Amino acid sequence: MSLRVAVYGLGPIGQLIAREVLKKKDLNLVAAFDVDQKKIGKDLAELLMLNDKTGVHVSSPSELGMMLKSNGVKVVLHSTLTYLDHVYPQIVKCIKAGANVISTSETLSNPYYRYPELAELIHEMAKKYCVTVIGTGVNPGFIFDTLPALLTAVCTEVHSIHVTRSLDAAKRRESFQRKYGLGLGLDKFKAKMEIGELTAHVGYGESISLLADTLHVKLDKIVEGQEPLIAGSSTKTQYVTISIGTVSGIHGYGIGFLDGKEFIKIDLFAEVDREEFEEVVVDGNPPLKWRSTGTAGDIATAAMAINLIPKLSKVGPGLLRMCDIPLPSTFLNLGVNQV
Question: If you count Cβ atoms within 10 Å of the first and of the last residue's Cβ in the chain, which end, N or C, has fewer?
Answer without folding.
Answer: N
